[in-house]
Amino acid sequence: MTVIEHAWENLSNTLRLYVEAHLGFAALYEVDRLDAVTRQDRTFEGKLEKFHALYDVTKDLQGFNYFKHADTALLIVLRNAIHHRDHNLFVSWEAFVLAHEETKKLPSSKYLFASLTPESEHIVLRYYLPLDDFRKRLPDAKLKAADRATIGALWEQDLRFADITAVANREGFDVGSVYVDVMPAFISAMHRVRGWLPTKNFVPRGNDGRIYYRSFGDEPPVQQLGFKALATPSN
Question: In which domain of life is the source organism classified (predicted)?
Answer without folding.
Answer: Bacteria
